[in-house]
Automatic annotation (TrEMBL):
Pfam families: GntR, UTRA. This is GntR family transcriptional regulator. It comes from the Bacteria. PANTHER family: HTH GNTR-TYPE DOMAIN-CONTAINING PROTEIN (PTHR44846:SF4), MANNOSYL-D-GLYCERATE TRANSPORT/METABOLISM SYSTEM REPRESSOR MNGR-RELATED (PTHR44846). Keywords: DNA-binding, Transcription, Transcription regulation. Residues 1-65 form the HTH gntR-type domain.
Length: 235
């Protein structure tokens, strides 16, 4: 339950509902009909994403990480039940939605055997009518037996959380500069060989079991990448 409340708090922050600070714990307990312990765990999860500043005796203030950039990819937000990685209300254009079996190259990337059945989703995603990214994602059918077309067109992570109770427990993320392949350039109508930022992610759910692998190429203007680091020794 606390993860669901954390997601609602993130959404409220992104929507500007909480502009300066969070309501008190008592107010949040009333708002979400939850215990103090649940609220504290939800707040702590949001704090771990770098969206809050803790001020002793004054509560939690909103950390505005988007003051200098139009779009910030929050790479600290990798354990939320629904994806807090991207801006809200992205519009998706599905290029490919099918099932495949891993070949040698994909099996190596995912560190699984060849011939494993996967859902493959390739999407162009838009933010404020501008191309935001190209996303190629592969979900293990042994974990996700059914993936709905509606979810593919909107939020896959919301669907996985609601249908299967699956969220990201941890992830391995690799940032790199990539040169667009001919296929990628054609899909995004950009120059073949042009250099952009790419994120390769392997996401794991409970017991460190692999859920999916994704390759995302970001092309949105004025994009910024954000990391939040907490020094646990000083907490």
């Amino acid at each position: 339950m606390y993860r669901d409340i954390a997601t609602k708090l993130v959404n409220a922050i992104q929507d500007g509902e909480f502009e300066v600070k969070l309501p008190t714990e008592a107010q949040l307990m009333t708002r979400y009909h939850a215990s103090r312990n649940t609220i504290r765990k939800a707040i702590d999860l949001v704090y771990q994403q770098g969206l809050l500043r803790r001020v002793q005796g004054s509560g939690y203030f909103i950390a505005n990480i988007q003051l200098r950039h139009k779009t910030v990819v929050n790479l600290s937000a990798r354990t939320m039940p629904s994806s807090a990685l991207h801006p809200r209300n992205l519009v998706s254009k599905v290029v490919t939605f099918d099932t495949i079996h891993t070949d040698a190259a994909l099996a190596k990337q995912m560190q699984i055997d060849e011939g494993i059945e996967l859902y493959r989703v390739i999407r162009l995603r838009y933010w404020h009518e501008k191309l935001y990214c190209l996303e190629k994602a592969y979900y293990l059918k042994s974990v996700v037996p059914y993936l709905s077309p509606e979810a593919v067109n909107h939020s896959i992570w919301d669907f996985l959380n609601e249908a299967y109770g699956i969220g990201i427990a941890n992830s391995d993320d690799y940032l790199s500069l990539t040169n667009l392949t001919e296929e990628e350039a054609s899909l995004m109508q950009l120059d073949h060989g042009a250099t952009y930022m790419a994120l390769d992610s392997c996401n794991y759910y409970k017991n460190n079991s692999l859920l999916d692998f994704s390759h995302t190429v970001f092309v949105y203007p004025e994009l910024a990448l954000y990391f939040h680091t907490t020094n646990l020794a000083n907490n």
